[in-house]
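Continuing the series of single-chain predictions for the mutant panel. This is the parent chain; the variants come on the following pages.
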Amino acid sequence: MAIDPIASRIPSATTTKSPAKPGIETGAAKVQAKPNNDRIEITANSGQIKRALDTAASLPVVDNERVASIKQALAEGTYAIDPERIAQKISQFELLSTEDSP
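Parent structure:
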């Protein structure tokens, strides 16, 4: 049994070029550049915000002087612990964390 090639089973397709329509250019498309009207304004506030962010980024995350002074006070036994202040801060934290939750 012979197998006919697929090309023999497909009717031959002929391509024809349709005539150009009036008012339509043929060839490469021409794109006209539109004037760019975008603009940006930097206000005084945004400048201050940027300076503040730059300053904050340059500061260390940990205040090493404060850590050293607390370590020294703990070692000397002179660090004063205020349990009422600690309880108050814990309560404030709890209130803030429950406000943020859905």
